[in-house]
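Pair request: fold both.
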Amino acid sequence: MTDIKGYCDPRFISVREALAALLGKDDVGASAAVYVDGEPVADLWGGYADANRSISWERDTLIGVNSTTKNMVALCALMLADRGELDLSAPVAAYWPEFAASGKENVLVRQVLSHTAGLPALSGPTTVEGLYTWESVTAGLAAQAPEWEPGTAAGYHALTFGFLVGEIVRRITGRGLGEFFAEEVAKPLGADFHIGLSADHDHRLAPLIPPPSLTDDYAATAPPRPDGTRRENTGVAIRVKDANSVAWRRAQIPAVNGFGNARSVALVQSVLANQGSAGGVRLLSLQGCEPAWQEAFRGEDRVLGVPMSWTTGFAKFGNTFGWGGWGGSLVVSDPSSRMTVAYAMNQMIDRDRQDDHRGMEIVMAAYSGLH
């Protein structure tokens, strides 16, 4: 049995057992956390921070969680809406006038957050380096025409989500998304999560490990459709070596370049499961949380190729909501139980070659503790 470190309420011993089983099988290093009523009931970690299994995964080890970062971006938007600084039903152009170009004058903020804005791909950058210049990426998005009539269909906005929401936040607050998150979310909560990572945290970072039998040239792609075909990749191909690079860490790519661990992910997202507060810190009113829970779109997602339910900022799964990241990280929140469960790891799995149920195994173990 793999040695698991950290704290676990006796009711949630199955979470410890599930993490140990994963580390004994597919995982190299990982963390799992469960928050109930905005307080930790499981905060666990184990394994190794490197592929050679020479450096232990510690309490403060950080990992890139890829698209799990989108949950953090959405929270920032909901906080501004709750404060009355952002109207989710207003046109994006009310805050970002240049965005009205190319027939987007009526695209609503809530459509951006629910992946229905018709801008699933970037038309400008063709290399990862092209993502590092915020002004050129957002100017390109402002000039782009939507691929479909906004609001009529959904298509996962894999990279554009963070630039679109981030620019709205910047226009309102004068701060970049990473700065806003650090000052308004991470600092009050004491959450060790970062959108973009500064050099002083590099020593704590575990690199992502490509899926078994693949190299660090392994690239993120849209999942295959049920018939086996793929949407043409018109965006930038991001490889494991890119996500592990210094340039990536220093950039602002808010949809995908967040760094943390299961504890920090679960802590932040427990705000939305616990009616707006966690650890005695209130970030939202109860009403301000509701857009995260309420379905905004249901139907076939044009990019993912599967039926999806999107809320304002999150994917909805039954009575729960959240989202995961390329390679396997995941966070799920259940407002009816006031529970949030998170999983973050360094060993990636290629879902084209192997089913990846690791995050859901942690989630189901947490539910067994609840009941």
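--- second member of the pair ---
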Amino acid sequence: MNITSQSDYAIQLQSRDATREPTWVRYLLLALALILFLSVLILPLVLVFVEAFRQGIHVYANALIDPDTLSAVKLTLLTAAIAVPLNVVFGVAAAWAVAKFNFKGKSILTTLIDMPFSVSPVIAGLMLVLIFGTQGWLGEWLLDHDIKILYAPPAIIIATVFITVPFVARELIPLMQAQGSEEEEAAILLGASGWQTFWKITLPNIKWGLLYGVILCNARAMGEFGAVSVVSGHIRGETNTLPLHVEILYNEYSYSAAFAVASLLAFLAIITLIIKTWVELRQEKLNAQLQKSE
């Protein structure tokens, strides 16, 4: 081994040792991470179910079949059923435009997509009050035409759509940018139309990223509290979603009922996490297969 190779080998050993932490440091960091995970995530989740069943299965079942609870479930599902498809359409269209084309105002579009991340949900709700309230921009016109948006399901749906706008688009934009536009350009040169290119080339390539974005969007839509709380009016049995219903029950000292309804949201969160993990694994396998093929 010559001098050059010996020096290179010594540098490699030094760099490897520089990035290798002592054993006690690694175990300490692992223990801190485990404690944080258990105390912040697992313990509160367990407590929700413990408190929900504290007074027995009968009280738990009665809380779930209560008419106000069923109304909150229906409104939550209705809101998600409308908000998620709307954001899927917008997210796919916005991601396709940003990733595949260059146009004036592209940076403005990406900024608008990220706006719900930077604006507090409560502020978003107040914005809707300023637009649709009786003293708002459209309030007088809505009263004249007997159209009720604020303190009714339409306002809840609009608020949820606004809050969940970024999730699908932000999952697809980097994915589409990484894939490039060569396949779409080749399909168009071979005579495919724009719709054929989208359905046959673009959509199959983004299906797992799209599913991932839909899962996150749906989870946020069902669990949104701040913006919905401002525009709902808290009308029991009419404009309360599940998170708002939990708040009302808790404020009325109906703790078992509040935790019982909260357990529904926790159950939805667990299902969402399982599906999210499955999608991530499928996406990793797909990426590994693409790397092998290259």
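Observation on the second member. The radius of gyration is 25 Å.
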